[in-house]
């Protein structure tokens, strides 16, 4: 089969690799129909995730059809259309029993495209298929479903729920890339008083406005002063870091109010300074997290029922064999206005939306 193979920092290739095979009775082989690219994939290519070894197939999000199932698989069978979760769960260990699947001790967690071959391929082996795939209803479109493999659960669990967003809160989201926009989208489920989006790119700030942000703040134009004015000097109830850079994390710690919450979603490749000399007295709670995907079934129901409109997040689409072009578009959002790109097995889906 063909797959995107990591060849070391800054290097990858759409190459021929052996077809995946059942290695454990709990495995399933899924024919990938739609996959996508995550900021985490860019961090891998940037050398920020050294556990990924050269030769690994990248990707951890997919929608496809089960073509083979191991003898222990009970909940899906060949012919089923499924969502492949970014998190694999053994379902038996200490953490899986408390729905903390991202910390699975039984061989799961974030393994696809990280510790084992991933989903940016024509076929993928999915361990623990019973607990790591989700059957899809006929009316759920691939481009919407694939966003529920990682993007929406991460924003919802690590940002919105982890940050404790409540009705009436002032919520500041630093970073209006895909994960920040998904945070803005899902934060509205809790009726915050206002959502402030902070970013450097005007196109992304405009996307934030379209998805529900109430206030837009350019990151280079004193967002701290704006937030101070909006809150009468109090600060944000919840500040959500959605970039993964020291300066954006620092901004969150400066704009949060005493007793407030900083929720870090971004993947950090460099250390960030924590100014405890300022924060210790403010009763600030800081949380980090790898998504657990316990919310995926609920999010799927909301998307199927039309309660969450996620399709505006997909701005570009490509055929599999143009994945290198897709990476180029996705990694230069200031030039392309790209949010999420969808990669489809069928070339007829290419350029679902016109490129800017």
Protein described:
This is Zinc-dependent alcohol dehydrogenase family protein. Residues 178-297 form the Alcohol dehydrogenase-like C-terminal domain. Helix content is 25%, strand content 23%. With 356 residues, it is α/β, with parallel strands linked by helices. The chain has two domains: 2-150 and 293-349, Quinone Oxidoreductase, Chain A, domain 1; 154-287, NAD(P)-binding Rossmann-like Domain (Rossmann fold, 3-Layer(aba) Sandwich), CATH 3.40.50. 52% of the residues are buried.
How many helical stretches?
Answer: 12
What general outline do the C-alpha atoms trace? globular
CATH top level of the largest domain? Alpha Beta
Helix-and-strand structural type: alpha/beta
Largest beta-sheet details: 7 strands, mixed
Roughly what is the average pLDDT, rounded to an integer? 95
Examine the secondary-structure arrangement and name the CATH architecture of the largest domain: Alpha-Beta Complex
Q: Provide the domain count.
A: 2
InterPro entries: ADH-like_C, ADH-like_N, ADH_Zn_CS, GroES-like_sf, NAD(P)-bd_dom_sf
Domain Alcohol dehydrogenase-like C-terminal: 178-297
Keywords: Metal-binding, Oxidoreductase, Zinc
Pfam families: ADH_N, ADH_zinc_N
Comma- or semicolon-separated keywords:
23% strand; globular; disordered C terminus
What topology emerges from the helices and strands here?
Blueprint: E1 2-6, E2 12-16, E3 28-36, H1 39-45, E4 62-69, E5 81-84, E6 123-126, H2 129-132, E7 133-135, H3 142-145, H4 151-161, E8 170-174, H5 178-187, E9 194-199, H6 202-210, E10 215-218, H7 223-230, E11 236-241, H8 246-255, E12 256-264, H9 276-279, E13 285-287, H10 296-304, E14 314-319, H11 323-330, H12 333-336, E15 340-344
Parallel strand pairs: 8-9, 8-11, 9-10, 11-12, 12-13, 14-15
Antiparallel strand pairs: 1-2, 3-4, 3-6, 3-15, 4-5, 5-7
Helix pairs in contact: 4-5
């Amino acid at each position: 089969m063909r797959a995107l193979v990591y060849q070391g920092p800054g290097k990858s290739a759409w190459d021929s690799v052996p077809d995946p095979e059942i290695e454990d009775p709990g495995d399933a082989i899924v024919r990938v129909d739609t996959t996508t690219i995550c900021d985490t994939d860019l961090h891998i290519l940037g050398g920020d995730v050294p556990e990924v070894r050269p030769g690994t197939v990248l990707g951890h999000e997919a929608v496809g059809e089960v073509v083979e199932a191991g003898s222990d698989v009970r909940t899906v069978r060949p012919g089923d259309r499924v969502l492949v979760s970014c998190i694999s769960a053994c379902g038996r260990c200490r953490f899986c029993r408390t729905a903390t699947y991202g910390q699975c001790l039984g061989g799961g967690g974030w393994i696809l495209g990280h510790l084992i071959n991933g989903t940016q391929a024509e076929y993928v082996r999915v361990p623990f298929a019973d607990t790591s795939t989700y059957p899809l209803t006929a009316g759920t479109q691939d481009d919407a479903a694939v966003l529920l493999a990682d993007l929406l659960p991460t924003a919802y669990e690590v940002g919105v729920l982890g940050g404790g967003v409540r009705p009436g809160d002032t919520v500041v989201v630093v970073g209006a890339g895909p994960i920040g926009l998904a945070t803005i989208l899902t934060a509205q489920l809790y009726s915050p008083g206002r959502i402030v989006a902070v970013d450097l790119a005007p196109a992304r700030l405009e996307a934030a406005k379209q998805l529900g942000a109430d206030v837009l703040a350019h990151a280079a134009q004193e967002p701290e002063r704006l937030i101070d004015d909006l809150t009468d000097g109090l600060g944000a109830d919840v500040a959500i870091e959605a970039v993964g850079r020291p300066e954006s994390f620092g901004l969150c710690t400066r704009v949060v109010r005493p007793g407030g919450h900083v929720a870090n979603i971004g993947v950090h490749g460099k250390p960030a300074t924590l100014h405890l000399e300022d924060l210790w007295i403010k009763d600030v709670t800081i949380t980090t997290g790898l998504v657990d995907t316990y919310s995926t079934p609920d999010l799927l129901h909301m998307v199927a029922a039309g309660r969450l409109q996620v399709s505006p997040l997909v701005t570009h689409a490509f055929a599999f064999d143009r994945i290198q072009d897709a990476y180029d578009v996705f990694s230069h959002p200031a030039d392309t206005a790209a949010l999420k790109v969808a990669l489809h097995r069928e070339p007829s889906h290419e350029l679902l939306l016109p490129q800017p």
